[in-house]
Write a structure and sequence with these properties.
Layout: H1 5-24, H2 43-52, H3 56-60, H4 66-99, H5 115-152, E1 163-173, E2 176-186
Helix pairs in contact: 1-4, 2-5, 4-5
């Protein structure tokens, strides 16, 4: 595999710079009006921020721990796109050299892979590259949806008083006792 070190360094610097930018960007605070019922934390703003810069919506929602997870996923998928695309190009070029009809062009896999093997390898790495591209797209959309949902739940009360208690019980149904379960939610 031929790795383009300068491009890899640029990609790494871009990811680190974006991560640091997300950490030091001032978080836009929700506007507080005199009416305590009109607190604002906009899900559309969070979604827009994440659409413009993945992870920015999570920073807006003060969920900072999600940003490195997001960028680790994106970085991994981008690495696999590059890896599979390089392998696809290698096997595609070898296959083209083998079937071009010119005896002067010889590929590196003579005696190692048959024509069918080269074709299968080419298709395997093309498919994996395409799946990795789909993965990046899905992660990008998931990033936007996550930011929007977190913004919707920004003021959701998660107090220590919330609990779910369950206990076995006997239910009287038409004169006979049936074993059952009681569930009680305490707010």
């Amino acid at each position: 595999m031929k790795v383009d070190i300068p491009k890899l360094k640029i990609l790494l610097k871009t990811l680190i710079g974006t991560f640091l930018l997300c950490l030091i960007t001032p978080v836009i605070k929700a506007q507080e009006y005199t009416d305590s019922l009109s607190l604002k934390h906009s899900p559309s703003k969070a979604a827009l921020y994440s659409a413009i810069l993945p992870g920015a919506g999570q920073v807006y929602n003060k969920k900072y721990w999600k940003v490195p997870v997001l960028y680790a996923g994106l970085g991994t998928l981008i690495y696999f796109i590059k890896f599979n695309d390089d392998k696809y190009d290698i096997y595609k070029d070898a296959f083209i050299k083998r079937v071009d009809g010119d005896e002067g062009t010889v590929d590196d896999y003579v005696g190692i892979y048959s024509d069918q093997d080269l074709q299968r390898l080419k298709e395997f790495y093309r498919r994996n590259r395409d799946l990795s591209i789909i993965g990046v797209s899905l992660l990008y959309v998931l990033n936007i949806v996550d930011a929007s949902v977190d913004a919707h739940l920004f003021y959701f009360n998660v107090s220590e008083d919330l609990s779910l208690n369950w206990s076995p019980s006997l239910i009287n149904q038409k004169g006979s006792l049936i074993p059952g379960m009681n569930l009680a939610i305490k707010f």
